[in-house]
Amino acid sequence: GQDLHPALADTDGDDYHDNVEINGGTDPLDADSNLATADGDINSDGLVNTVDLLIAVQIITGQITPNPSQFTHLDVAPLVAGVPAPDGNIGVSDLLQVMRKVLGLTSF
């Protein structure tokens, strides 16, 4: 298998630096596991579904504090030309974008 190496910025060739993937909770050795596919997947189970919505509501209402991976996957708003442009803030706009993805109204 491949090994992570500090000199290799993008081991799996998915255009995301290894350290960005590790911090975002995706696999830097798997090109199919990257931040683009993980947007909205707050529990990192490979699906964007109602479980992610429930976690998002709990985060936004202050019931739970997001870990760095959850924060990264929930911070999807605003969308610019249909692509998430994370603004470093989590709020209702992020929840709405995740809800739209769950409902199949958007695909980012």
Q: What structural category do the secondary elements indicate?
A: mainly alpha
Low-confidence stretches: none
Spatial arrangement of strands, main beta sheet: 1-2
Bulk shape: globular
Range of strand content? under 5%
Order of helices and strands: HHHHEEH
Number of strands: 2
* Helical coverage, percent range: 25-40%
Strands, helices and their partners?
Elements: H1 18-24, H2 35-38, H3 50-60, H4 68-74, E1 79-80, E2 83-84, H5 92-102
Antiparallel strand pairs: 1-2
Helix pairs in contact: 3-5
Question: How is this structure best described in words?
Answer:
- The longest helix is centred in the middle third of the chain and has 11 residues.
- By secondary structure, the chain is mainly alpha-helical.
- Strands 1-2 form a two-stranded antiparallel sheet.
- It is built from 5 helices and 2 strands.
In short:
The chain has 108 residues and is mostly helical.
Name a few traits of the molecule:
5 helices, single chain, 2 strands, two-stranded antiparallel ribbon, 108 residues, mainly alpha
